């Protein structure tokens, strides 16, 4: 197996570089997803009206053997018109109970467009952000390490001066 002047085999060098690039790509994708999700949610909520609502039912969904639940909520807009909203956030166990009061963000121009205001609003976005920072940091760190570790040898080979020495003795 050919070995480079840094002592690494070519397959190991390629695997190291590929791992760094994959980590960097995952980091970039997660950070892009987190920022897009945050901006979308923030934009909607900045222009939204709020209302108090009540969970009137739970919708169930079989997710690979697990039964997950999403709340069905009724709320009244500022014109006192009643609306029903089925959340897209399914959970096991159910995060809400029938009869529970909730807060709802809704679009004043299209009141049927709504979102619930859970206490953990940004949890998914925070997970994406942390994964993105970790994976991206790992990718950047590996690429930087790879470059800095091989830099002296890369410079010395074409620019260094050969010195003849005679080995005399080695102490323990």
From TrEMBL:
The keyword S-adenosyl-L-methionine does not apply. Residues 52-119 form the DUF3592 domain. The chain crosses the membrane at residues 20-39, 85-106, 126-145. Keywords: Membrane, Transmembrane, Transmembrane helix. It comes from the Bacteria. InterPro entries: DUF3592. The keyword Secreted does not apply. This is DUF3592 domain-containing protein. It comes from Chitinophaga costaii.
């Amino acid at each position: 197996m050919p070995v480079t002047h840094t002592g690494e085999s070519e397959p190991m060098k390629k695997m190291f570089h590929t791992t760094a690039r994959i980590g960097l790509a995952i980091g970039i994708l997660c950070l892009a997803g987190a920022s897009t999700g945050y901006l979308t949610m923030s934009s909607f909520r900045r222009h939204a009206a709020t209302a108090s609502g009540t969970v009137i039912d739970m919708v169930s969904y079989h997710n690979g053997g697990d039964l997950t639940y999403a709340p069905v909520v009724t709320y009244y807009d500022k014109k006192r018109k009643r609306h029903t909203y089925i959340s897209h956030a399914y959970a096991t166990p159910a995060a809400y109970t029938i009869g529970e009061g909730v807060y709802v963000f809704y679009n004043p121009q299209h009141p049927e467009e709504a979102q619930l205001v859970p206490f953990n609003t940004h949890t998914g976005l925070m997970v994406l952000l942390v994964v993105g920072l970790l994976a991206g940091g790992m990718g950047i760190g590996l690429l930087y390490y790879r470059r800095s570790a091989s830099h002296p040898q890369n410079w010395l080979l074409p620019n260094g001066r050969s010195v003849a020495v005679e080995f005399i003795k080695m102490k323990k």
